[in-house]
């Protein structure tokens, strides 16, 4: 048998497995296959001179008959057994770094492996720009994996200046998926970390020109415009209250920009929500844009309503003006004709006005 052949014996393990550092992990009832004993086929690491000094630590699933053992591949199980051994010794080496790369290739969601890899990168003083290049290939293959982007953030936090190709790579990621939450979250961190406030807005506008319905881009615009005026240690930009630190000319610019965006796609909910937020930041009521909203939803011309979101906006405007009947009519139009899928919600909103029920 090979040097790492598994044993199946009801008594105490013998030979190599009699070592105290191994028997801690292996009970007398475990059956571990570190290579295919029947065929004599050795594993990638068990047959490698580079790892000859390492005693692998196999997975403990809880006894000989685990309730829900995960069916790992032999390749992955072997790699992880060697990684456990390396981590147990807190090994920081090129071979261990390469081992994390192999495991990430098989399982890019293994958060512990990413943390161990980052620790080794810094301890070994590796070229972090090379790490970013490697990460690019991994991210393009696994576009919705958040561990990749957390690792990228950790690596980037140790780089003093923004790498010249970083924003180009993010643009490539957005070209594949313009609403990738993990990439947007990372980009927000990047903007704040490197103070990219003055350079970010033109890029966001280019994305909205391509797709004015890109709700992720609208969300990022809010961050870029307002987060720079907010101390993250004291306040959150999610607070919609009036903000005196935002220059009034910025507020006016955002109102006009959003109105123009609405004019191109009145049924797009994102700019309507954005507009509400900007008005609250200024301490303005929705009433101040009543005339604008009525361009898209005239209650006297029910057949010509161009935006259900304008109706929603106007329902709040009329309620603020104590015009309950007009507010109720806007909500009734939404329930009956322009957004019947949410009829119960609009009926509930109308019930808050204490108006008579409208028959179906």
Descriptive overview:
- This is Protein farnesyltransferase/geranylgeranyltransferase type-1 subunit alpha.
- Keywords: Magnesium, Prenyltransferase, Repeat, Transferase.
- Belongs to the protein prenyltransferase subunit alpha family.
- InterPro entries: Prenyl_trans_a.
- The longest helix is centred in the C-terminal third of the chain and has 17 residues.
- This protein is an all-alpha fold and 360 residues long.
- The chain is elongated and about 85 Å long.
- The N terminus is likely disordered.
Overview features:
360 residues, 0% strand, mainly alpha
Number of helices: 16
Helicity range:
40-55%
Biggest sheet architecture: none
Distance between the first and last residues' Cα: 81 Å
Q: Quick one: overall form?
A: elongated
Sheet-strand content, in percent, reads: under 5%
Organism: Letharia columbiana
Pfam families: PPTA (PF01239)
GO molecular function, one term: CAAX-protein geranylgeranyltransferase activity
EC number: 2.5.1.58, 2.5.1.59
Blueprint (SSEs and pairs):
Layout: H1 20-23, H2 74-88, H3 94-106, H4 111-123, H5 128-141, H6 146-156, H7 166-176, H8 181-194, H9 197-210, H10 215-226, H11 248-264, H12 269-282, H13 290-294, H14 308-320, H15 324-338, H16 343-351
Helix pairs in contact: 2-3, 3-4, 4-6, 5-6, 6-8, 8-10, 9-10, 11-12, 14-15, 15-16
Pfam family, one: PPTA
Family: Belongs to the protein prenyltransferase subunit alpha family.
EC number: 2.5.1.58, 2.5.1.59
């Amino acid at each position: 048998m090979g040097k790492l052949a598994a044993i199946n014996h009801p008594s105490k393990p013998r030979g190599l497995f009699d070592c105290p550092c191994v028997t801690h992990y292996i009970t007398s009832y475990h059956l571990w296959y570190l290579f295919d004993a029947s065929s004599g086929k050795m594993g990638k690491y068990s047959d490698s001179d580079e790892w000859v000094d390492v005693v692998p630590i196999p997975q403990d699933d809880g006894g000989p008959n685990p309730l829900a053992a995960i069916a790992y591949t032999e390749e992955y199980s072997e790699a992880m057994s060697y990684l456990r051994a390396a981590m147990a010794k807190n090994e920081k080496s090129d071979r261990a770094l390469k081992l994390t790369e192999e495991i990430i290739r098989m399982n890019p969601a293994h958060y512990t492996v990413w943390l161990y890899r980052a620790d080794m990168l810094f301890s070994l003083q590796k070229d972090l720009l090379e790490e970013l290049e490697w990460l690019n290939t991994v991210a393009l293959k696994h576009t919705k994996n958040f561990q990749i982007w957390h690792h990228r953030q950790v690596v980037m936090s140790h780089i003093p200046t923004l790498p010249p190709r970083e924003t180009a790579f993010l643009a490539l990621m957005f070209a594949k998926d313009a609403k990738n939450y993990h990439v947007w979250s990372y980009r927000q961190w990047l903007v704040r970390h490197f103070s990219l406030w003055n350079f970010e807005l033109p890029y966001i506008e280019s994305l909205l020109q391509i797709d004015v319905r890109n709700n992720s881009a609208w969300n990022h615009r809010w961050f870029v415009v307002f987060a720079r005026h907010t101390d993250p240690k004291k306040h959150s930009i999610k607070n919609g209250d009036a903000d005196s630190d935002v220059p009034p000319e910025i507020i006016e610019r955002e109102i006009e920009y959003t109105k123009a965006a609405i004019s191109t796609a009145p049924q797009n909910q994102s700019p309507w929500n954005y507009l509400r937020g900007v008005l609250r930041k200024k301490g303005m009521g929705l009433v101040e844009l009543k005339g604008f909203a009525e361009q898209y939803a005239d209650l006297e011309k029910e057949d010509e309503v161009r935006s259900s979101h304008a109706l929603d906006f106007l329902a709040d405007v009329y309620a603020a003006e104590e015009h309950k009947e007009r507010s109720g009519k806007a909500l009734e139009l939404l329930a009956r004709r322009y957004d019947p899928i949410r009829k119960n919600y609009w009926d509930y909103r109308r019930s808050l006005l204490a108006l008579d029920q409208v028959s179906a």
